[in-house]
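Appendix B. One record, verbatim.
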Amino acid sequence: MHVFVTGATGWVGSAIVKDLIEAGHTVSGLSRSADKAIALTASGARPVTGSLEDFAVLQQAAMEADAVIHTAFNHDFIQGNLGNDFSKFLESAALDERVIEFLGKVLSGSDRPLLVTSGLSGLPLGAIETDLPNPAAPRKSELAAQAAAERGVRAATVRLAPSVHGLGDYGFIPVLVRLARQTGVSAYLDNGSNCWSGVHRDDAARIYRLALESGVTERVYHAVADEAVPLRQIAEVIGRQLGLPVEPRPREHFGWFASMAGGTMAASSARTRAVLGWAPAGPDLLSDLDQADYYAA
């Protein structure tokens, strides 16, 4: 099939593009710059020049495709200074919701599937795929996908673990690494017993393809390999690799990242594994973090 991917040069999106092409599918990917277009072409995909704000471009690309995978999300808020006020996240979340609503309208009346991306934040401990998202959460990706599904669109959500890890990771684990380097301590909140889930980037990418190939029979899929990894264990690996002490710190130490650092985002992927025949093949989170190349600056 021909799949249109937003965020096609991002951390997860580029892995999805690679996996789809290796499985024999054709891919077009949204590209915001000439450099990114070159990278997409080199990967075997066809670049579509534009951004998430270019709704005419999104409409044309979605209409030409057999399926749409939406992974694009502006993560600038985790790239810069640890004092960020998270306002960029709220802006990104609002645009994400508008894009999903628009793509749902474009695909309405057809049988072409739409896969969108969300996370585990706000879900209960040990969440399963049928648990509902928190309506008060600022990111509305899943709620927008559900609304599209209720209008007859074959839409579903892939919930990513908070750590989608692998060499080159620039997500939430590197925030903890940067904070440790800046403060001289690899820290955790309270007793560090709150847990995150993890999944290797390549394993996460494979879920999107398997969901499309199986006909998108579910409303939600969980890209979760390690279901519950205590933050203290993550801090211990970071501390060992950086040669820093590992100690508890108050919320103030983590700044804008305190809610994530102290949050529990642990979930089961039992149904996803069963319906897709998905079996994670990549390294587990702690093993992946426990290698020097993960800390190359």
